[in-house]
Write the structure tokens for this entry.
Amino acid sequence: MKILAIDSSTTVMGVAVMEDRKLLAEYTTNLKLNHSVRLMPAIERVLSEVELSPQDLDRIAVAKGPGSYTGVRMGVTVAKTLAWTLKKELVGVSTLQVLAQNGTFFTGMVAPFFDARRDRVYAGLYKEGESHLNPVIQDAIVSVDEWLLSLKNRNEAILFVGQDLSAFESRIRSALGEQAVFAPPSLTIPRPAELARVGAALSPEEMVHQFVPEYLQMAEAEAKWQANQKKTLN
């Protein structure tokens, strides 16, 4: 099976191609630049480097969120368009699950997270499964204090993975002490190769055109609109 993996859900933009269990190519950047300008050229470049055409692919795997609304929507739109027009399989993988795979060989639990602003985080909790790390609890957006309390009650070593480690490290250490383990900088960003690996093990979407991102919260504009509608009705 030849899989194209696409991730534009955060500041990280990644593209990878995997054939069965062999990684053919992987391209990753972690720049605050416009993914909309760079994503399609990156896909074209990676496929060209491994001498594959889009028609040669069997499956498209995409990071479905949570993350940047624009980034998540862009990656999902590109993946759906490719899958639909080429008649290829499509599978969506949680951005947090992709990030968690960086802790594959950790013996405890892995807590991927990133800042959701307003003293909240997008967070998940994962543990080793048969072929990859699987969720212990569902991904969620949660207050930092509530998140740390729930992790402390696990009474198990927890590896924290994410680009926002430096912003939360002192609070995590204060709450969990020696229970907390921190990933090195090289393991703090999601890898598209891991997206491809997880995507290979999941069942594809049955209806490509009905596949939607998982934001875990409404966009700010949408939330304000709903609040205004409630005021109007009242």
In short: Residues 39 and 221 are 26 Å apart (CA to CA). The two ends are 55 Å apart (CA to CA). The beta strands are 2-7, 12-19, 22-30, 59-63, 89-93, 109-117, 120-128, 133-143, 158-161, 180-182. The first helix runs from residue 35 to 49.
